[in-house]
Specification:
The complex is a heterodimer of chains A (360) and B (421). By secondary structure, chain A is an all-beta fold. Chain A has a single domain, classed as Methylamine Dehydrogenase, Chain H (7 Propeller), CATH 2.130.10.10. Chain B has three domains: 87 residues, Sandwich (Immunoglobulin-like), CATH 2.60.40.790; 87 residues; 128 residues, Serine Threonine Protein Phosphatase 5, Tetratricopeptide repeat (Alpha Horseshoe). Chain B has a four-stranded mixed β-sheet, covered by helices on one side. In chain B, strands 2-3-8-7 form a four-stranded antiparallel β-sheet, with no helix packed on it. In chain B, a hairpin with a 3-residue loop joins strand 2 and strand 3. In chain B, helix 5 packs antiparallel against helix 6. The longest helix of chain B has 88 residues. Chain B is elongated, with a radius of gyration of 54 Å. The chains are: A mainly beta (360), B alpha+beta (421). Chains A and B meet through strand 13, strand 16 and strand 17 of A and helix 1, helix 3 and strand 9 of B. Strand 13 of chain A pairs parallel with strand 9 of chain B, so a sheet runs across the interface. Chain B: It holds the Pfam family CS. Chain B: One of its GO terms (biological process) is nervous system development. Chain B: Keywords: Cell projection, Cytoplasm, Neurogenesis, Nucleus, Repeat, TPR repeat. Chain B: GO terms for molecular function: nuclear estrogen receptor binding.
């Protein structure tokens, strides 16, 4: 693991810090704008959505929306650029899609799960990728459900434990491989270290593995291409990068793992403008910026003659400690390279700028 | 006895005395010369020269030049006056001694003062050096801070610029929207090509705005196209999953893996022990030398009620392998039935010893051991010890009703005996 040369290393500059009066669980940029959303839970047990706009060196609160149940996660992934509807999952298991201009009544609402929705992802919107817009939610009740906003009440796909099997909390979900209208996969990470890859075209389990520690976050490097890389982060400071181009019949996907921080790695997010750079945020309030380097040959033949992937290597570009509390959410701006927002459990949201990303 | 040097010669001026001392071949170093205000001594064993001077001299500035078998002193007088002689005329022994001691003391004091002065200057130098380093480091830190500030400002400016472009882009986009709603697909394709060309130009400044607007208009059209081409919602389906079973069903960080490993290891070790140095064993059949087989035999005999036979079987098994806790456990049960209560207690204790470390795996065995020992205690009327064991068993397995009932009974018994006594 080598660090980039001193003067050329990307710097993480803290641009704005905003103290909030509630616990922020998720923060997202509104696409095509300099506005960001903070989702969280107020002390009185209600959900808060705040819309901020970046004005010089401060954030200006444009709108605050309060909902009956605390909100855990949100995504813009499945809406069109014109509509920019926000899909949220809350503590009660409800999936709602809101029009932020008229937030009194949701555009779509369903009680998807019996327990809190831990993670949500959307695909097919924002002009990225092809195929129907879909939203996937992963919940504490052990199920992963895929929803189509045009179909009310029932999910279009559901991944549940077998009858009688004790359930494990699903902590994270991600879409991937959505490079044409039919193909799509959902990756889910569970609290016992299971990672499962579901193929929605064939409606089957395509691959599963166990990384021993609970999986906090999974993300494909790009949702809308043939699946290339998957990063899974876990408790105890480890993350794994899987090379998804070559699947071996028994050994699955090749991976490289790195133990980065002493504490849980809460989130991983790839830079939208460069799919080999990603940032991990940790339980000690630190952010690490990583670069993945491909090996000379991405696949090789093993002794039986079947193709096996070769994992590359990961190098640390920069790290910075911003807070004493875990940084639980992270989002890159899809419009400005290097601009990102992170929300931490010390009730602050920070806007950061990562410089010199062009030189990598 | 020192050899006195007396061939010295001297002359004087008003301000100074010049003394020349031939050394008779001895070699002199500065250490051999001792001089104070009114006393001068040159000691090169075995030669000695001393002089109690007529008047005080300035010993700090006076010099001695060593060379050519000769020491040449230049002594500066404190008071310019002509001396009658080099040394004091009536220099008796006492005076000389007094002078000598005085001289030595004075010399010592001077030396002390000098060292102190040196120390002070050293400290001052150190302080100065420290301050200088601090200044240098401060400058370095400031330089880095400045670099960071500059970077921050540059980046903030870029951000502002970008944000304004976003705003303009939005406005422009809405205007374009209205225009293009009247156009057909052909011009759309044209614009798509245009967009692709534009992406190849480095997009800084105004070209960005144009780019965004075309992108916007493209997406509207592609949106319309897409809506016609969007596939219908998927046919609903369910995928059933299994979760990875775990030997120990706790997450890695909660598991007591170390202890569980230790237990497994111990079990494996225990099975491998064979105390095969017993000569009587030669009589036994092959299978009778296997502790597991003997344990099974014992279990069968216990089940049939042949407690003595079972005890024998267990005894032999223990002789072969004394590290298997189950043997002791089962033998304890036999002793209970045979009312050999002390033996039962012994065996249960031994079994518990072997059942460390306490892991979920050997829970059952530990519960049984505690219960058997408790029963033995109670039958010996040692109710408090018995109760302790029953409570330990309850702690391991809180859901066992029988143990609870028995523990209650014992408590009542204890309270009954305490009331009556």
């Amino acid at each position: 693991m080598s660090a980039a040369v001193g003067a050329e290393r990307p710097q993480v500059v803290s641009h704005v810090q905003q103290a909030l009066s509630y616990t922020v669980f998720d923060c997202k940029w509104v696409p095509r704008s300099a506005r960001l959303l903070c989702l969280g839970s107020a002390a009185r047990g209600t959900g808060i959505v705040q819309l901020y706009e970046l004005h010089g060196a401060r954030l200006e609160l444009l709108r605050e929306i309060e909902k009956p149940k605390p909100i855990k996660c949100g995504t813009f992934g499945a809406t069109s650029l014109q509509q920019r509807y926000l899909a949220t999952g809350d503590f009660d298991g409800n999936l709602n899609i809101w029009n932020l201009e008229a937030p009194e009544k949701p555009v779509y609402s369903v009680k998807g799960h019996k327990e809190i929705i831990n993670s949500i992802d959307g695909v097919g919107g924002l002009g990225i990728g092809e195929g129907a817009p879909e939203i996937v939610t992963g919940s504490r009740d052990g199920t992963v459900k895929v929803w189509d906003p045009r179909q009310n009440d029932t999910p279009v796909a559901s991944m549940e434990p077998v009858q009688g099997e004790s359930k494990r909390d699903c902590w994270t979900v991600a879409f991937g491989n959505a490079y044409n209208q039919e193909e799509r996969v959902v990756c889910a990470g569970y609290d016992n270290g299971d990672i499962k890859l579901f193929d929605l075209k064939t409606m089957s389990l395509r691959w599963e593995t166990n990384i021993k520690n609970g999986v906090c976050s999974v993300e494909f490097d790009r949702k809308d291409i043939n699946m290339n890389k998957l990063v899974a982060t876990s408790l105890e400071g480890k993350f794994h990068v899987f090379d998804m181009r070559t699947q071996h019949p028994t050994k699955g996907f090749a991976s490289v793992s790195e133990k980065a921080q002493k504490s849980t790695i809460w989130q991983v997010r790839h830079l939208p403008q460069n799919r080999d750079i990603f940032m991990t945020s940790g339980g000690s309030g630190s952010l690490h910026l990583w670069k993945y380097e491909y090996p000379a040959q991405r696949s090789k033949k093993d002794s039986d003659g079947s193709e096996m992937g070769v994992a590359g290597s990961v190098s640390l570009l920069q790290n910075v400690t911003l807070s004493t509390q875990p940084i639980s959410s992270l989002d890159w701006s899809p419009d400005k390279k290097g601009l990102c927002v992170c929300g931490a459990f010390d009730q602050t949201v920070r806007v950061l700028i990562v410089t010199k990303l062009n030189k990598i | 006895m020192p050899v006195w040097l007396r061939e010295h010669s001297w002359r004087q001026t008003l301000a100074a005395v010049y003394l020349s001392l031939p050394l008779r071949g001895a070699r002199a170093t500065p250490a051999n010369i001792f001089c104070s205000e009114q006393y001068l001594k040159v000691s090169i064993p075995p030669f000695l020269f001393e002089a109690a001077l007529y008047a005080p001299i300035d010993d700090a500035n006076s010099t001695a030049k060593i060379g050519n078998g000769n020491i040449f002193f230049t002594l500066y007088k404190k008071e310019p006056a002509m001396w009658d002689s080099l040394t004091l005329a009536n220099a008796d022994k006492e005076k000389l001694q007094y002078l000598r001691e005085n001289a030595v003391l004075k010399a010592q004091e001077k030396a002390k003062e000098e060292t102190e002065a040196k120390k002070i200057t050293k400290q001052e130098h150190k302080k100065y050096a420290l301050e200088a380093t601090m200044k240098v480091e401060e400058a370095e830190r400031k330089r880095i801070e400045d670099l960071k500030e500059k970077e921050r400002q540059k980046v903030t400016q870029e951000l502002e610029l970008w944000k304004n472009q976003q705003k303009d882009g939005d406005k422009y986009k809405s205007i374009q929207k209205k225009k293009e709603l009247h156009q057909e697909i052909e011009p759309l394709k044209e614009r798509k090509n245009e967009k692709m060309n534009k992406t190849q130009i480095p997009n800084e400044g105004t070209s960005k705005t144009r780019l965004k607007s075309t992108k916007g208009s493209c997406s509207i059209f592609s949106q319309n196209l897409k809506e016609e081409q969007l596939p219908a919602p998927r046919a609903a389906a369910t995928i059933k999953v299994n979760f990875t079973p775990r030997v120990f069903p706790t997450a890695l960080r909660e598991s007591r893996v170390a202890e569980e490993e230790e237990w497994l290891h111990k079990q494996a070790e225990a099975r491998r022990i064979i105390n095969s140095d017993l000569s009587e064993l030669n009589d036994l059949k092959e299978e009778e030398k296997n502790p597991d087989w003997l344990k099974d035999k014992g279990n069968k005999m216990f089940a049939m009620g042949d407690y003595l036979g079972a005890v024998n079987a267990y005894n032999l098994a223990v002789r072969l392998n004394n590290k298997l806790p189950l043997l002791y456990l089962n033998r304890a049960a036999c002793h209970l039935k045979l009312r050999n209560l002390h033996k039962a207690i012994e065996d249960s204790s031994k079994a518990l010893e072997l059942l460390t470390p306490p892991v979920p795996d050997n829970e059952n065995a530990r519960v049984k051991a505690h219960v058997r020992r408790g029963t033995a205690f109670c039958q010996l009327e040692l109710y408090t010890e018995g109760l302790q064991d029953y409570e330990a068993a309850l702690k391991i397995d809180p859901r066992n009703k029988n143990i609870e009932k028995d523990a209650e009974k014992i408590r009542h018994l204890i309270q009954g005996t305490m009331q009556s006594s």
